[in-house]
Design brief:
Blueprint lengths: L2 H15 L2 H22 L8 H25 L4
Length: about 80
């Protein structure tokens, strides 16, 4: 991808992020992350279930990866 293509993509994402739909999407992502953290933190030692912990950690990792990719794209404006 050329520098100009990176800048164009970053600008397109910036424009998209100004829309109400993006703000709604970001709120959904934040809520999913909050629920994943809460679910993981609420597991008592007696009820410790590796599958449940893995699911919560997987959600958090996916959200972290999405945010990382977006940050990388947005750096194309620099």
């Amino acid at each position: 991808m050329t520098d100009q293509e990176k800048k164009d993509l970053a600008q397109a994402y910036r424009t998209m992020m100004d829309l109400a739909a993006w703000k709604h999407f970001e709120k959904m992502i934040s809520n999913i992350e909050l629920i994943a953290v809460k679910n993981e933190d609420d597991v008592s030692i007696e009820d410790l279930n590796i599958a449940r912990i893995a699911e919560c950690r997987g959600r958090r990792a996916a959200i972290k990866q999405i945010r990382g990719e977006l940050n990388y794209i947005l750096q194309g404006l620099s």
